[in-house]
Batch of 2 targets.
Target 1
Amino acid sequence: MKTTADIRQAFLDFFAEREHRVVASSSLVPANDPTLLFTNAGMNQFKDVFLGSEKRAYTRAASSQRCVRAGGKHNDLENVGYTARHHTFFEMLGNFSFGDYFKKEAIEFAWGFLTGTCGLPPEKLWVTVYADDDEAAEIWLNHIGVEPERLSRIGDKPGKRYESDNFWAMGETGPCGPCTEIFYDHGPEIPGGPPGTPEEDGDRYIEVWNLVFMQFDRSADGTLHPLPAPCVDTGMGLERLAAILQGVHSNYQIDVFEHLITAAARLTGATDRDAPSLKVIADHIRACAFLIADGVLPANDGRGYVLRRIIRRAIRHGYKLGCEDLFFCKMVGPLAEVMGEAYPELARQRDDVAAVLEREERRFGETLDQGMKLLEQAIAGLEDAVIPGSVAFKLYDTFGFPIDLTRDIARERELEVDEAGFEQAMEAQRERARAAGQFGGGDAMPADLAAELPATDFLGYTQHFAERAELLA
Ligand code: ATP
Ligand code: MG
Ligand code: MG
Ligand code: MG
C-alpha cells in the first residue's frame, strides 16, 4: 500500500523532475497577510509573487502545505464528521507557475500525475471548467481527450458575477481567476451525482484537484485587474488522494486517520470505532497540535479563540463518548508518530504542545459537565426545537461553551439555537459592563465575532513568523 507519506513524496518528486523548486510548507499563521486568519491554501506563501511585488529565484514551485480551514472565508469546521472529505487541518499538494507555464502544461501535468504516476483510470476522472473558459475546455477535450460527458462547465452563482466553484479567490481581495477541477468517482454504491448536476452534493464524486489560472487581482470594490503575468496555482488534498490510492472512500479510513482513530478509541474507551466523534477528535488533534506548534495559544479572541473553540469541541466529543479522563492532550504522541517525520517541528515540540492542550483540557473539564447538565435540563424542557438564547448565553458566559459548540450539540439533536436571543444577551451584558465602566472604548465585541475578524493583536506573532518564514525559505 502507498502510505500518505509515500504519496506526498511521489508528488514532490514528480514536480521536481519537471523543474519545480520544492518549497517547505509555511506556518499556519500567515507571515505576510493580515487579511487571512490561517494559511488555507498552498498559494498563500506565494501571494506576493503572484501579485508581482516579490521575485523569487525560480518560476516553478511545488509544496505540500499544511492548511487550516476553520474560520474566515474558507470554513470547513461544520463539515467535519459529516462529510467523507473535509478536515479542519489538511495538507494541500500544489504546483505553481509564476509567469512560467499556463493552462496547457498545468493540465498536462495534473493528468500525467494522476493517470501516469498514480495509475488512475481516466474513466474514473471527471472535470469541470469555468463556464466562460473555452480555452481550458478545448485543452481537456481536444488535447487530453477527456470524454465530453465527463466535462462540465460551471457558471456563476445566480446574480453574482465571478462567484462560482470554478472561479477561485483567496479572499475578498487578492489574486483570483477561473479554475478547472478534477473529480474522482468513488463508484455507484455511494450516493451523489457528477459535478455540475443537482445531485452533486453527495460524496460519490469527490473533488481532488483544483487548478487555478490566476489572471487577476481583485480590489476591494470588486474590479478585476489583470496580473502582470498569468500564473498557475494548484491544490490537491493529500488525504483525498490517499483515500483514492488506498482504495477507501472516506479520508478518515486512510493510514494516518486509522492510526489516530485507533488512538482516540483507546484513550476515550469508545467501543464503536465508527462513532463520528472519533473522526472529529482525530481531525481536531491535527488542527490543534499544528496550530500550537506554529505559535497559536488558546485565547478569548482572534486566532487563539478559533483554536480554543476547536479544542473544546474535541473535548466535548470525548465527553460524549463517555470519557471522563484527560484524553485529548494524549493524542499528541500518536499524532507525532504518524506525522512527526514529515513535520519535525511537531515532533520537536510535542511535549510543549501536549502541555498547552492539557491545561486547556483541565480548565474546560471543570465546567463541561455542569454545562452539559444545564443544557440537558434545558433540552428536556423544550416546547419547540429551539434552544433559548439565554441558555446559550449562560453556557457561554458561565461554562465556557463557545456558541458554535452549543450549535454543534444542537445539530446532533436536530435542534436549533436562538442566535438572535444569544446576541441580545451578549449585548445586554456589554451594556452592563459599559455602565460599570469596564470597557473604556465601549467597543468590546463577542469573542465569537472577534474570532472571525482579521486579528489585530498579533503584530508580535506576525513579526515572529515573518522571521520564521525567512528561516524556512
Ligand atoms: P470542496 O468543494 O470539496 O469543499 P474546495 O473547492 O473548497 O473543496 P479548494 O479551495 O479548491 O477546495 O482546495 C483545493 C483542494 O484542497 C481541493 O480540491 C481538495 O482536494 C482539498 N481540500 C479543500 N478543502 C479541504 C478540506 N477541508 N479537507 C481536506 N481537503 C480539502
Ligand atoms: Mg470547500
Ligand atoms: Mg469545490
Ligand atoms: Mg475547489
Target 2
Amino acid sequence: LTQLFRPLDMLGWVYRNIRQGVIDMASMFDLLDAHAEVRDAPNAVPLAIASGHVRFEAVHFGYDPDREILKGVDLDIPAGATVAVVGPSGAGKSTLARLMYRFYDVTGGRITIDGQDIRDVTQSSLRGSIGIVPQDTVLFNDTIGYNIAYGREGTTPDEIAVAARGAAIAGFIQSLPNGFETRVGERGLKLSGGEKQRVAIARTLVKNPPILILDEATSALDSRTEADIQATLEAIEHGRTTIVIAHRLSTVVHADRIIVLEAGRVAEQGTHAQLLRKNGLYAEMWARQAQEREAEGGEEVPAE
Ligand code: ATP
C-alpha cells in the first residue's frame, strides 16, 4: 500500500510547491528524476565537452508506445551555432528539448554531444552542461540574489552581480530597497514576466553552460520588453551552442539555421531568407504571423 501511495504523496508535494510558486523547471526535472525510468548506465562516464556539437540521428520518440511523436528526426547543430526550432503547435518542438536534457530516452536513433551518445554519459554531467531558460520561471521564496545563485553552488556575490549585469537586471535590483537581499516570490516582491525571465537568464549565466536551450515564452510580453529580452538572449548565445524553441517567428530571424518541424518530422530547414524563398510552410507561417502583427497594430518586422 505504501508503494501505491508514495507517488500520490509526491504529486501532492509537487502540486503544493507549484501553487506556492516555488519550483522551477530545472528542479522539477531533478524531482521527477527521482521517479523517472531514465537512469545512468552502469558504466556511464562524465560527458566530455569538446566544442558542444549536438546531433539528433534518426530520432524516434513517443510518450506512449502507440503514439509516435518524433518520426525520424535528423538535426545537426554545429558547435556555437544558434538553431531555432519552429512549427505548428504539437509538432514536437519542446519534446526535442526534453530528450536533449534526457528527461526521456529516445525510442529509436540517438542524440550525441561531441560524438558521445547521451545515454552513455552521467546525467549530472549532461545536465550540468545544458542551461535552460524556461518559458515561465517560478521563483523561490527567498532573496533575489539566492534566486540567481541557484544555478550553481558556492556562487560569490561578485559572480551574482556579474550575472545580473549580463542579464540586464542589475539596475533594477540596485533600485530595490534591499538590493540583492530583497525577498521575492509569493511572500516577497512580485516580479513582472520580463523581470522573471531576466532572473532565469542570470541563473543560466551563473551556470555558464556550453549548451543552451531557450524555451521561448508563449505568454505575451509587451513588444518593448520582448525586444530588450531578445537582445539580452542574443548576447548570451555567443560562444554557446543554442537551441531556441520558438513560438514567434519574429524572434528567430537571426538564427544561423531554422528547423521547421511538422508532425514529428523536419519539413524544412535553412536560414530565414532561404526559407522565405522556398515558399513552403515557413513562408506561410511567416505571412500569417505578419498579418496577425499588423492586425494587432504591432511594429513591422523586416522580412530580410
Ligand atoms: P507547442 O508549440 O504547442 O508548445 P510543441 O511543438 O512544443 O507544441 P510538444 O510539447 O513537443 O509540442 O508536444 C508534442 C506532442 O506530444 C503533443 O501532441 C502533446 O500532446 C504530446 N505530449 C507532450 N507531452 C506529453 C506527455 N508528457 N505525455 C503524453 N503526451 C505528451
